[in-house]
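User: I'm curious whether this sequence folds into something compact or stays loose and floppy. Could you predict its structure so I can see for myself?
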Amino acid sequence: MNAPVYRAVVAGVPSTMTARLLWRWLEAGHQVTELWMPAGLDRGMLRRERQLGFFRPGWSVAAAAKRFSIPVRHVEREDLAKDESLAESVERSGLILSCMFPYRVPSHLLTLAGGRALNLHPAMLPAWRGSAPMISMVRAGRAALDGGVTLHVMVDRFDAGAIVAAVPVPLDPGKDWIWWAQALSRASGDLVREGVEPFLRGEIDPRPQPASPTPYALRANAQFAIDKTTSYDQAERHLSLFGGHASRDLRTDDRTIRVLGRARSLGPPTGEPPRIGPFFVAMDLADARCRFRRRLPGASRRLRLKRLLRWVIAAY
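Assistant: Here's the prediction. I'll summarize afterward.
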């Protein structure tokens, strides 16, 4: 007996999580009517996506779209409510698969999907609903407890629908951000077989979510910045996650400086203003005075190459 073939609209950003979902879905013989991506994506993200696809196409959304001739549509938030052609795509497919899509899918599209709108969320729901769960759980020191991928039914409220399946992916001690992101991506691909297909065959009865033990995950735009309210342990967690292949924002009272490497504790806070030199910055955090290494001018290309190499290695 032949396995059923399903069609889906896939909505997501060009991340490795979306890529693994997309590739595993297509390799299982299913189809994609359209790929929806938010308009105005960060150019750095798109560049890394293309570069990674050159070396490891199975981890690239762009490579999947090219290989399988998938129509790609860049949508604005308001398009979801007004563009009738989007509704037609959902109606033809009868299924929405979302992965880290930043916009709320409106109720009329969820209705057209007939209860078959599913989202992959990079946390063990009900913990860390919202737009930046990975960053939020790292800040809270809960990445070893709440790290994972949850497949859930989409409802009007972000990340609150019934849970179909979940795979724990804790952030292990000594592992960096890229290792964790790739482990989460592998789990996302596995959930095609372990979650999406059994759900569509009626073999899984989704379970309602209990109350969340954590607040909604805050927006990502300011979460990894280090300032005077950050503890030494938080600063160390953030910097060590990115090793030497990415810099972070260090915010003094009147400027933002890019730093990388590790934070060195110089003792308790002194109350003195930050000391900014050409190579290092010393300033008070919430519980310690620390020294940070500045990113030197001209380091951007070298760091981009180190990040790309790390992504390629982690994809094997």
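Summary: The two ends are 34 Å apart (CA to CA). The chain has a mean pLDDT of 90.
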